[in-house]
C-alpha cells in the first residue's frame, strides 16, 4: 500500500450517497432472502444470487476507488539508457510511420526499435528510411510477449518504453515518466490510453454538452488511480515504461496467456515491486472503428483475465497484499457481469 502518496478522497457528498446505499443494502438483502417465490424457486434463487453478486462487485469497486492518487511527475534523471519498442505484425505502413516518427521525436536520449513479427520488407525499408532500428525473428512464438522477449536479447537498456503500433507518443512522454524510476523499487509506469478517432464505436457524444465519453474513461480516469493507491495498477501493454532489471527478475514478459500485460503486472507485484500510474495523457491511439474489432478485443481481455487467474492465482497467493488481491479480483470478476445482466434481462421480460 502507498499511503504516503497524495490522494483525492470521495468527499462528503459521495460518502453520504455510499452510506445510504450500504444502509439500504443491509436492509434489503436479508429481507429479499425471505420473500423468494416458492412457485418458481430455482429461478428466484438464481435471481437473488445475481443481486448478491451485484452487491459484492460494488463493494469491491468501492474499496478499489475509495482513494484516487494525485501524481505529479518528478524530474527525469539524466543518464538512463532508454529503448522504445513498437511491436507490429500486420498494421499498415502509414500507421507505423506516424507512431515511429512520434517515438523518434520524443525528448530525452533514446533508441527506437521496430519489432516486426510480420517479417515484411516494407517495414525494414520504413525503419531504414526514418532512422530507427529494425528487429524481426523467424517465428511468432508467444505473439506480442514473444516479440518483446526476443528484443530483450538484442537490446541494452535500463528502461523500455512500449507503444502499440497505433499509439503516437507526445514529445514529453519520457520526460514525464522517467522520474519515477529514481525509486529503485518501481517496476513500471503506466499512463492512460487515449484515442484520436473520436468517431470510433466506443466513443459516445453528448449532443447537449458536446462532450465525448468512452467506456475506458472509467478505467483510466478512476479505477487505475484507485488501484495506484494500493500498489495494484496494471501494465496495459502500451503507453508504459518498464524497468529492465524488474523484467529480468521474472524471466521477461509473461507468456502462456493472451493478456501478457495483466500477467506481467501480476508477476511483478508478486515479486514485491511497486507500480506507478501517471494519469496524464501522453499518447493517443486508434480505437476500434466497428463492433467486430471491439468485441474481439473485449473477448480477448476476458479470456486472458481467466487464464491469468487460473495460472497465477489471485485470492490465495501469499505474494500479494490483501488490498492487491482485492484489486485484482475486482478487475477479473467484472468479466462475469454478462450472466448477471442476462438474468436481470430475462426477469424483466
Task: Please explain how this structure is put together.
The chain contains eleven helices and 14 strands. By secondary structure, the protein is an alpha/beta fold. It folds into two domains: 84 residues, no CATH class; 241 residues, Spore Coat Polysaccharide Biosynthesis Protein SpsA, Chain A (Alpha-Beta Complex), CATH 3.90.550.10. Helix 4 links the parallel strand 4 and strand 5. Helix 1 runs antiparallel to helix 2, helix 2 crosses helix 10 and helix 8 runs parallel beside helix 9.
Summarize the structure.
The chain is α/β, with parallel strands linked by helices. The chain contains eleven helices and 14 strands.
Any descriptors?
Spore Coat Polysaccharide Biosynthesis Protein SpsA, Chain A; 14 strands; alpha/beta; 44% helix; 11 helices; 349 residues; 3-stranded mixed beta sheet; 7-stranded mixed beta sheet; 15% strand
Overall strand count: 14
CATH domain fold name of the largest domain? Spore Coat Polysaccharide Biosynthesis Protein SpsA, Chain A
What is the CATH level 1 assignment of the largest domain?
Answer: Alpha Beta
Q: Mean pLDDT across all residues, rounded?
A: 92
Distance between the termini: 45 Å
Strand order of the largest sheet: 5-4-3-6-12-8-13
Count of helix runs: 11
The CATH homologous superfamily of the largest domain is named Spore Coat Polysaccharide Biosynthesis Protein SpsA, Chain A
Radius of gyration: 22 Å
**What CATH architecture label of the largest domain applies?**
Alpha-Beta Complex
Q: Which sheet architecture does the biggest sheet show?
A: 7 strands, mixed
